[in-house]
Specification:
The complex is a heterodimer of chains A (424) and B (158). Helices cover 42% and strands 11% of the residues of chain A. Chain A has 424 residues and is of the alpha/beta class. Chain A is globular and about 75 Å long. Chain A has helices at residues 21-26, 31-39, 42-51, 64-69, 95-102, 104-118, 132-147, 178-185, 214-226, 228-232, 265-272, 306-311, 330-344, 350-367, 373-385, 394-409, 411-418; strands at 81-86, 122-127, 163-168, 209-213, 242-248, 255-260, 282-286, 320-325. The relative contact order of chain A is 0.12. Chain B is 43% helix and 11% strand. Chain B has helices at 10-20, 30-41, 46-56, 60-69, 89-93, 96-107, 149-155, and strands at 81-86, 120-125, 137-139, 142-144. In chain B, strands 2-1-3-4 form a 4-stranded mixed sheet, with helices on one face. Chain B is elongated, with a radius of gyration of 18 Å. The chains are: A alpha/beta (424), B alpha+beta (158). The complex binds flavin mononucleotide, iron/sulfur cluster and FE2/S2 (inorganic) cluster. Residues 56-60, 62, 64, 85, 87-90, 173-174, 176-178, 211-213, 216, 393-395 of chain A line the site of flavin mononucleotide.
Amino acid sequence: MDKMDKPLTQNIEPDRLFATLADYERTGGYQGLRKAVKELQPKEVQQWVKDAELRGRGGSGFPAGLKWSLVPMDDARQVRYLIANGDEMEPGTFKDRFLLEKDPHQLIEGMIIAAYAIQARTAYIFLRAEYHLAARRLEQALQEARAKDYLGERILNSDFSLDIHLHTSAGRYICGEETALINALEGKRAHPRTKPPFAVVSGLWGRPTVVNNIETLCNVPHIIRYGVEWYKGLGRGADHGTKLFGASGRVKRPGLWELPMGTPIREIFEEQAGGMQAGFSLRGLLPGGASTEFLLPEQLDVPMDYEAVAKAGSRMGTGGLIILDDKTCPVKMVLNLELFFAQESCGWCTPCRDGLPWAAALLQDIVEGRGRLEDLETLSGLTRMMGLGHTFCALALGAMEPLQSALKFFRADFERYITGAGEG
Amino acid sequence: MTGKPAVLTSVEIEEITAEMSHYADKAAVSIEALKIVQKYRRWVSDECLVAVAELLGISPAQLEGVATFYNLIYRQPVGRSVIHYCNSVSCWMLGAEQVRERLCRHLNVEPGEMSADGEYTVLPIVCLGACDHAPVVLVGGQLRLDVTDDTVDEMLGR
Ligand SMILES: Cc1cc2nc3c(=O)[nH]c(=O)nc-3n(C[C@H](O)[C@H](O)[C@H](O)COP(=O)(O)O)c2cc1C
Ligand code: SF4
Ligand code: FES
């Protein structure tokens, strides 16, 4: 494949520790920024990204250009912020760490262009605490960018000035939710905020704030440099551009690959990941991280774009496939997931704070042989109790997705524990 | 304040103060400040917490609320080296429990406890973003990938 078909990973090579500034510039790095600040108005940059139909890669798929266009721009003195969300903690997801460690300048250029588009003069990278190597590479890259006049006062002799600060967090999955993240950045407990007002209008310290995922921002330099038409030509289905897709579990070659949006799951699973390891067969998969619904082997031809995966009954999420094999018990797998969500609930609203530990306890009872058939009804009831609109943020909603789909697809596995026939 | 022995070192105060310039208000550096103290002392004692709160101009209760929310701020002593083993789904499928058992057996601890010699604390952690190399352990700021029994033994110098 041509490098232009893989813009996000074009500088990442097997024998290269990571892409240095020189490596990045050699393939046209920071040309997008130059073009943006020299030739385009902020509104035009917004429009390009809107026309490219870049959708957020943090899980929800919200159109990035549209988000930027909701930022109030009339008052030139207004303080605005841009935040890159590098909290990546969704189990089964490992794309942002890769992008940050391997090509830190790509994110930085994307952030500067995004900040220019919304005329933010201060930006933050919110990075989870455990990403030590990424933190070091980013700090170094930020210094290099400042030294080269890509960052700081009057960038490349334009009127635009920006600084970017790296904030390393201190744990908790909920920090990735954008309004909880804003509270964390303000030095508070990371509880989500009531919406509206939305962060684009009132976010960090009450100012208009755009929060975008790392991978989303990494797409931006290429859209500006190579244009909307080129970008739209990269997708294979309804969505455009490329995406980092991952696979973990008992596949032959677990890993991460940049592929066109709309690549069928089968190609990721069979061609990239090499199918199942010897002695294992495919039972199901979570297509986009822990908080997505199971898909079944007969759904492998579903293309990985937002609408198609939704139509198949799940969500594209983060694009990290978690593969369930035939020797792993789906009930225990769901128990593992619900223990995660129960532990990570921030405790702000009752259905989630009480409901998730309850669900985990019921699942624990079931796998330990103390379950009753009515527990399955209670679990179904809990998925409704934590359904859309009943909780403050999407953590609980996401937590219910693997559970409700497992209850539907793997019901017999649940029942075997209860009727005493045991696992498997 | 006069008469009271200084709790924080001048280096700690300097680093915390430097962070303040990145934010619109002082309280925003709460988490960074706690992490700076922890970097030098491994954990955050009550005494340090009060001193940091004073430096930031917020109440100790407010800072305590922040400190207890974040699982990587330690409010009790931990070993010289904290070993985090991932127990999220992909690692769980590929042997995280075996990793935990071996770690705990060698060190004769339960997760959360410090080994008798004060060298190690073993703690579970959520997905470390390296699921294609499950099971994964984070120790000394470094990811250990595709962890086996041998990796665990080598890590502990056995
Ligand atoms: C519990 C929870 C955790 C989240 N964690 C992350 C995360 O780690 N990284 C991320 O980019 N988005 C995360 N999100 C989504 C963010 O709220 C937000 O939609 C996203 O950062 C916006 O960026 P995007 O539009 O570029 O995708 C999370 C959402 C929820 C509800
Ligand atoms: S749904 Fe859960 S995580 Fe979200 S605000 Fe409510 S308690 Fe917190
Ligand atoms: S599940 Fe262990 S690193 Fe992701």
